[in-house]
Amino acid sequence: MPPYFSVHYTFPYSTYNKSFVNDIYTMIFSQFPFKSGYWMAEKNTLEEIVSWNTSKLAKKFKLGFTQHVKHDYKQMLLESELYRHLRLYWMYESNEIVLNLILPEDDIFLDNKYLKYDSTKLVPLFNISEKIWESFGVNTIQTYHEIGAPTSYKDILDGELPSTEPFSIVSPEAYSRITDALKDKFIVRAIENGVLIIEKDKMAEG
Length: 206
Hints:
The protein is of the alpha+beta class. Helices cover 27% and strands 31% of the residues.
């Protein structure tokens, strides 16, 4: 498998309701339509995947070390002409709902040597992330590469920078805790109920 780039969304569990999974999917499908189930969900319909994942989140399900992966959340592939592989999957961690949107790292780079991003490949990810932020109660939206990892919401509130490779979205409260640490390495833009943070000097035209 190729190394993956991740857009990592975290929601407080209080955001959950019976329509939450379907509502998130519907918003994402407006930009990246449903293609199929993935990894032990290939034969499932969209309705079956929605029902399964809704039930799992209702129970705050976490896969145990000895449990078979068939019991985990069902993953799906999305349609896109921009990316070779676009996958979506849920997790539950520490009273947060986690949604991951992943794609091959090579799909967003123009220049692997200098890690220059293709802005035409990033703009659709910016757009759907901003829509999700403005429509749901989101704790953080972070991006990172195969060897990276997201920063916990608690650590961000304690002043640690969110993973911003190359963008993140945080609340005004969280932003106030990290302003000094940002220095001049990032571009900052206010959006509805939040702050978009973009890594400087990594964007290139596609």
